Amino acid sequence: MAVDTTKNAYAGMDFPLQINRQDAFPLDGTEVWPSLAEAQTYAQTNPTAYVGQKISVMENGKAVPYVIEDEAGTLKAMSGGGGGGGTGNVSSDDVSFLRVLSQEEYDLIEEPDSKTIYYIMG
Questions:
Q1: CB 2 within 8 A of CB 72
Q2: Whether residues 55 and 76 fall in one domain
Q3: Contact 121/61 with Cβ under 8 angstroms?
Q4: Could you tell me which of 47, 46, 27 has the C-alpha nearest to residue 38?
Q5: 94-103 long-range contacts, Cβ below 8 Å, gap at least 24?
Q6: Quick one: CA dihedral 39, 44, 45, 49, positive or negative?
Q7: Range of 61's domain?
Q8: 4 occurs within a structural domain
């Protein structure tokens, strides 16, 4: 269950020092997940998950950003920003996921999910 931090007063943390990366990894170990299932489990069960938290899931070698949408830990795929025609932005309750697949991967799907937008590469 994710925490809605707007409902309670949480202690602030003054940290007047600069953080410098020492290697190529996220500062928060819960920021990047190897699978959507693991990210969903984190969002729905971990007491440190919070509403509005942005996490990424590795899909086909690419990071796909999600936001924890509510206290139930629902993950919502984040769309690209900027507006304008042809950007691929999606903002609808009718769409849950965006997936980028090769034609071969798409052909293996027996029943495409009606709440998923499929982008075919190539």
A1: yes
A2: yes
A3: no
A4: 46
A5: 98/64, 99/59, 100/59, 100/60, 100/62, 101/60
A6: positive
A7: 26-80
A8: no
Report the Cα 63 to chain-centroid distance in Å.
9
Q: Specify whether 37 is located in the same domain as 70.
A: yes
Query: In the Cβ-directed half-sphere of 27, how many Cα atoms lie within 13 Å?
Result: 5
Q: What is the pLDDT of residues 56-114, one digit of tens each?
A: 999 888 889 999 999 999 999 886 544 444 444 555 566 667 778 888 888 888 888 77
Q: In what order do the strands lie in the sheet with 32-33?
A: 32-33, 54-59, 62-68, 75-77
Tally of domains in the chain: 2
Rounded-to-integer distance, Cα 84 and Cα 92, Å: 17
Tell me which of 44 and 28 has the higher pLDDT. 44
Residues 33 and 68 both lie in one domain: yes
Q: How far apart are CA 58 and CA 33, in angstroms?
A: 6
Between residues 16 and 57, which one has the greater pLDDT? 57
